[in-house]
Structure formats: C-alpha cells, structure tokens
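Example S7 (structure tokens).
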C-alpha cells in the first residue's frame, strides 16, 4: 500500500494514554501531530490501562482538523509492545498511524506491516531511529515498507548508546544519516524535542539547525513551544508562490520535467513542492477569521 500524501509535520507533541482528558487539549494546541503515548511516559504497572484508554480514543469519530493522530506503541522486542500490537490488530477502529520506537532492523517494520495488512487495517507507520543498530540500518528501514510516512530521530537514547553528550555537535553525524535515509525514500524526518523549556532562544536555534540539515519538523515537550516550531519550519511566501507555480507548470506540461527560471525541474522535486503547499494550507487554516 502507498499513501504518502504530503502533509505538514512541522511539530508534534505527546499526550499520555493514561490521560484521555488531555487529548483534546493537545489537538487544539496548534501542533501538526499529536502522539498518544504508551511507551516511555507510561510506567509498567499502568501499561494495560493506558492501552485500553488510548485505543478508546480512536473508537470515537475524529474531527477533520488537519492534525495527524499517532499512537506510540512500545518496542516490538518487548512484551508490552507485543500486547500493544495485539490490541491494535483486534480493534475495528485502529489508530490512523503507529509510531514504532527503538527500531533496530527492517524486519520489525515488515512484520508489523504484514500483520496490519492481514487485519485489514490501513494504519500508517512512523519509525524512530534511536539506537546504534537502527542507525546502521536506517537506509534499509526507510525503504522496507510503503506504510512508512516519516522517520523520527531519537536523540536522547541515541546519545546514551553512543556515550556522547545530547547536543548538536556530538549527534550531527547521526542526525545527518537519518536525514539521508529518510530523503532517499521520500519520507518526512522529524527531530527530537528540545528539553529545556526555560530556553526558548536555544530551542529556536536548534530548530533552525535541524531545518537547515533537512528535517521537516521537531518535537515539543510543551504546547508553548509549538508556535515557534511551526514558524521555523513554515515556508516563506516566496517559497509558497514558487511551489504553486512549479506544480501548476508540471501539470500543464505533463512531460515529467519542466524548465523554470532557466533550471531543469524534475518529478522528484514535486514532493517537496506539494509538502510546501500542504504546510501553506495548514497555515491558512490557523489564521484568525
């Protein structure tokens, strides 16, 4: 299955599966992605309760509000992850997407893809690269399933595995490899949240660095970070106008390539242009009436 429709992924925020009352607040905070959390943010004794409450959220009709909904399950290499997957497969109302943490090999993704297919679920996949093994296999992981929409860089766990500081310079090589892997498969790629809520300037710098490296967006640990992240990862009016022009000229030419401003523009450029237009549409939705 292939349904990688471009959509804005400038920001994301977690909301705990144990607290369904926080889900509507997360959806309304301006973020592009809300991820209901079953993994790191949930204690082992609470996993079953969180799973039941989280899946109940997706049993309700979801508003067409432009916010992407994801459920972060536990690692498939752990009991809790297997139990999460069994529950997802059993429900007639699965989440639109699952976030897979600590992915080490393509086999994990392929297996989940096949299980979802057998269950008749159209659920999409997002994978987190946050282990050294996952980093080594990032290219193959990115290409192993057409269900994958995005790759996430998990800097905290990656720094622990590499025995380095969780900072830009020590993790630059790892970040770049994840960006390259995602780009090779036409996937969006999203950076780890900036953890210091008291340093908004530092967060903006980190977001700009991630954007310039090729990331599509960055995570938030608090709603007050969302507006700044969306601003950093939003295209300029000039970029939006150019994207719309390129799309229009491609559609008019119907040849697979066009020349714009003296430069040859081929089909691979189109996905990024459509992503820019999708972000622009989201920006227009958020404008006050």
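Recovered sequence:
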């Amino acid at each position: 299955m292939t349904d990688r429709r471009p959509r804005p992924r400038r920001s994301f925020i977690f909301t705990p599966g144990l607290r369904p009352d926080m889900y509507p607040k997360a959806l309304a905070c301006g973020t592009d992605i809300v991820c209901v959390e079953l993994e790191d943010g949930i204690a082992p004794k609470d996993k079953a309760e969180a799973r039941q409450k989280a899946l109940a959220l997706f049993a309700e009709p979801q508003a067409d509000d432009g916010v992407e909904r994801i459920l972060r399950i536990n690692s498939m290499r752990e009991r809790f992850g297997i139990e999460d997957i069994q529950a997802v497969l059993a429900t007639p109302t699965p989440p639109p997407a699952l976030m897979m943490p600590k992915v080490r090999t393509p086999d994990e993704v392929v297996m989940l893809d096949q299980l979802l297919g057998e269950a008749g679920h159209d659920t999409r996949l997002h994978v987190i690269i946050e282990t050294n093994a996952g980093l080594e296999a990032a290219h193959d992981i990115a290409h192993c399933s057409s269900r994958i929409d995005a790759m996430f860089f998990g800097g905290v766990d990656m720094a622990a595995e590499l025995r380095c500081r969780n900072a830009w310079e020590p993790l630059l090589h790892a970040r770049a490899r994840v960006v390259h892997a995602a780009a090779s498969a036409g996937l969006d790629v999203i950076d780890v949240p900036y953890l210091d809520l008291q340093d908004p300037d530092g967060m903006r710098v980190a977001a700009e660095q991630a954007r310039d490296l090729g990331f599509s967006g960055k995570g938030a640990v608090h709603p007050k970070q969302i507006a700044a992240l969306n601003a950093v990862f939003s295209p300029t009016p000039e970029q939006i106008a150019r994207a719309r022009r390129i799309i229009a000229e491609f559609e008019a030419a119907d040849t697979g390539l066009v020349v714009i401003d003296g430069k040859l523009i081929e089909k691979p450029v189109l996905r990024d242009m459509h992503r820019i237009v999708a972000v622009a549409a989201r920006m227009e939705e958020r404008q006050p009436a």
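Notes on this example. The chain has two domains: 11-232, 237-285.
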